[in-house]
Amino acid sequence: MRSRLLAALMSVIGLLAVSACGGPAPAPSKIKLGFSAWPGWLPWQVAEERGLFKVNGVDVELQYFDSYTDSLTALSTGAIDANSQTLNDTIASVGSGVQQTIVLVNDTSTGNDQIIARDGITSVTDLKGKKIAVEKGTVDHYLLLLALNRAKLHEGDVQLVSTLTDSAAAAFAAGHVDAVGAFAPHTTTALSRPGSSPVTSSAEFPTLIPDHLVVRTEMARLRPDLVQRLVNTWFETLAWIEHNPDEAIEIMARRAGVSPLAYRAYQPGTTFLTKQENQDAFGSRTLHYRAVQVADFMVDTGLLYQRPVMDELFDDQFVKAL
């Protein structure tokens, strides 16, 4: 689910490009929205197939990314206008100089990010000295560091094998490494290895891996009306899913490339936030406090060089207007 960008690879493309006549380009009339195969973001596929973007009067070009990392790059370089991504990945992007704004909390990860180990490894402490495949800099690398820290271990106490999340899950399933950090639906691949099981998951850190709708700051400034309609669509989609669960699961499972039965197993591991919970989180500065907490941990563990300025990271106007 979901990786941070290396600062050296960041490039920022401004939304206000200079036109041929020398003036600023017109404000965008639609939103290019990216998402990838995380259960908390697959409702966007439902919104597309059920025509809910059009119902809410917003022209959305929905783009699915097989690689979550590619979606982060696309938002940071201006190839898309909005993306669903984790808090820690957004902090990493902002820390490298990209202007991004969080306008919505989609969900929190409550079990669908996992560290899965082979038979005979039953705790995080048992990972000492073992080979662990993980996409370095990803949210599951972050989860691994959280778990190691709680077990009084450090990254140097394990052997990291850095690879993309889907390849990491496949390598573990094939028996090439002792453990893997992965998010659903890649956890299904990893758990196909006989005797494997999670030794920890995001359920043990239920507030530290929130997932957000993030837009380029220029988009929020130039077309707040479009962003508002996108936020409105999200909650209407959740309501539609609640009233049509079987059809919704068919749509999301198909996009994730798993069976509806497998997809149902992911449901407890992703907790969606309601309108009221979003309003409470933005209004109480809970999100800012959590961002500071996450950023400080990322600095302490080497995922960030320094904590970025985050005073304007969250824009509450859109959830307030719901």
UniProtKB/TrEMBL annotation:
SUPFAM superfamilies: Periplasmic binding protein-like II. Keywords: Signal. PROSITE patterns: PROKAR_LIPOPROTEIN (PS51257). Residues 1-20 form the signal peptide. One of its GO terms (molecular function) is ATPase-coupled transmembrane transporter activity. It holds the Pfam family NMT1_2. It is found in: Periplasm. GO terms for cellular component: membrane; periplasmic space. It comes from the Bacteria. Belongs to the bacterial solute-binding protein SsuA/TauA family. PANTHER family: ALIPHATIC SULFONATES-BINDING PROTEIN-RELATED, TAURINE-BINDING PERIPLASMIC PROTEIN. This is NitT/TauT family transport system substrate-binding protein. It comes from Kibdelosporangium aridum.
